[in-house]
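Incident log, structure service

09:12 report received: a user says their structure output differs between two submissions of the same chain.
09:20 pulled the input from the user's history:
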Amino acid sequence: MDGLRKLEEAAASGDGEAQLACARAYTDIAMEKRRFFQSLPSGSSALRGPARHLETGGFEQEIARDMQIAFGWYQKAAEHGIADAVYELSLCYEEGEGTAPFPEKAQELLEKAAELGHMEAQFRLAMQYYEGHTIVCDIKVEQDYEKAVYWLEKGAAQGDNFAQYYLGLCYENGTGVGQDYEKAVSLYRRAADCEYPQAEAFFELAHCYETGHGVTLNIPRAIELYRRAAEEGDIRAALKLGDCYERGFGVEKSKERAIEWYNIAAEQGDEDGISALYRLSS
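09:34 re-ran on a clean worker, output below:
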């Protein structure tokens, strides 16, 4: 705790970064307490002596107190214009951690954090405009693809792989921006270099090679990428491979292989996969 005390001294002197560090420290303390107590069975003998009162819900009061302290430090750090602090403060208002839920304030701070360059805030704001609603808060947001592209561009420039993927979709489909297949392919390749959303990016790249959009038409390469996407869990790719084997498109026709791929999709509850299995087995 000596380290925390020193942090609090620096924070109290007005150091914005120390204030953010204090806020995160108290958040970590609160979350660790929550994980610990939630892991205990009711009436656990692990709670003894002074800790016994926590068994009846008192631990939530302690967690709330820690989060209130964290919230106070987030507020102070945010006053310095620190993007991370503004974003974390937005989450506090959104989730009601350390304060009462306040969706409008959460949205205001989310936008401010995005303007300050916070990558996750930029992506969340982009998706609000892309989908036409807020992610969590019950606030109406008009669907605006041009604004979505604006914020996706910001995030993609910072290396946000999800922003790169969705921006690729926008360029491929001409959504909120002029259609540009080569730009889409470039973005999908960048997104595919990351673990997430690698499967989705492989699928879109495969589609580009299949159609010759932004790249030279290359069916074998498309099949290879569909396979990689399916192996990473993309149901659409499993269905596509099932269809390819069923029709003999780009691969040797094989009912057995088609069933294997359709079954992968069906096992995940996909109705198209289930229908295909029924059709091939009847």
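09:41 both user submissions now match this output. Likely a transient worker issue. Closing.
09:42 reviewer note: The chain has 14 helices and no strands. The first helix runs from residue 2 to 12.
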